[in-house]
Design brief:
Blueprint: H1 12-42, E1 67-68, E2 72-73
Antiparallel strand pairs: 1-2
Amino acid sequence: MPVSRKPVDISRRNLLRNATAAAGGGVIFAATMIVDKAKAADKISQDAAAYQPIPKNGAQCDICTLFQPPISCTLVQGNINTQGWCKYFTPRA
């Protein structure tokens, strides 16, 4: 014996409310992606920074003011090794 199902009552108000919420979420997602790409475009390449994944004379990224844990830098693009170094190294005080 088949189970009878109650028909779903879709009102115009609920449909518009859900569509508006979905569109708003899409706009927020798109804006976030644009901001992330803009931030990446402001950074310089690892080659331009003379980045190397090993320390130089005791200087390394994890003690630099530009390093952002766990693997990022405010100035240089890409993943940054905590033991790395670049020509913009600035030690923390």
